[in-house]
Amino acid sequence: MSEFYTRGGRSGFVSAGKSEIHFRIDGAENDKWIVLSNSLGSNLTMWDEQVELLTRKFCVLRYDTRGHGQSSTPAGPYRFSDLCSDVIQLLDHLGIGSAVFMGLSLGGMTGLGLGLECPDRIKKIVCADGRADAPETFRKMWDERIAAVRSGGLQAILDGTINSWFTKEWIDTNPDRVAVIRKMVLSTDPVGYVNCCLALKELNYFKDLPQISVPVLYVGGDQDKGASPEVMKDMAKATPNAKYLSVQNAAHLANINSAADFNRSVSDFLGLA
C-alpha cells in the first residue's frame, strides 16, 4: 500500500485483488469511520459538499470505485461481489474493523451488497438514489448505454447523464459547476464504466432485502427518474429497520443537486443532528 499526503487529507492506493483502489481520508482519525462510495461515471470528489458535515463526527474514507477516478480498471465484467470485495479489502488494509457506509446509485447498491454479505463490517447504510433490482426496461437501458459508450466513449452519453443527474433549474444556474462535473464524467475510463454497467444489469438484491440486519436509510431526489421515490419507498418497506427520506428539488445526484437538504436528510440517521 502506498500513501501520500494532500492538503487537508491523506490519500493513497490499496491493492485489492486485481484492483488498485484510490482512497482519501479526511478528518481526525478515530474509531468512528464512514465510507463514501461514488456513483457510476463520477469519482470521490462528488462527496465534497458532505465532508465538512461528516468530519464533525467521523473519520471520512472516500474511494474511487474500480474503473473510476484514479483507481485501476481490472478486466471485466464486474459483479457487485467484486465491488463489495474491494471495499472489504480497503478496510482490511487500513485496519478498520467496521464502518458506516454511504453510497449513491452504484455506490448505494454496493452498500446493500455489503449489508447482505458482510454485516459484521457495516454499522449502518445510507443508500442514496439507488435501486435493488434490474427489471427488463432497466437492463435494456444499460444495453443501450453500453453500446453508446463502446462506440463513442463517455462523450456519447455526457449530455444525457448531466440531464438525469440534475434538475434543469440547477443546470441553468450553476454553469461553472456543470463544467467541472462534465470533465469528471469524461475522465472516467470507458472500459471501467462499461464493466460497472454490466454489474448493474445483474442487480438482484430486492429479494434479499428482508435479510439486511443493519439500519438502513434510503434517501433520494424527489425528481430522480433512475431511482424514483416509489422504487425507493418499496425498498424501505422490504428492509427491516429502514426508512425513506426524500430530498427536495433534486434529481439523481441529490447530494450535489440539493446538498443542503441532502445533508439535513442524513444528519439525524448519522447522529449529526
Task: Walk me through the structure.
- The protein has one domain: Rossmann fold (3-Layer(aba) Sandwich).
- It has helices at residues 48-54, 80-93, 106-117, 136-152, 158-165, 168-173, 175-186, 190-201, 229-238, 254-257, 259-267, and strands at residues 2-6, 9-16, 19-26, 33-37, 59-63, 99-104, 122-128, 216-221, 242-247.
- Helix content is 41%, strand content 21%.
- The protein is globular.
- The chain is built from eleven helices and nine strands.
- Residues 1-7 have low confidence and may be disordered.
- It has 273 residues and is α/β, with parallel strands linked by helices.
- A hairpin with a 2-residue loop joins β1 and β2.
Radius of gyration: 17 Å
Any idea what the CATH superfamily is called?
Alpha/Beta hydrolase fold, catalytic domain
Side-by-side strand order of the widest sheet? 1-2-3-5-4-6-7-8-9
Q: How many helical elements?
A: 11
Low confidence ranges: 1-7
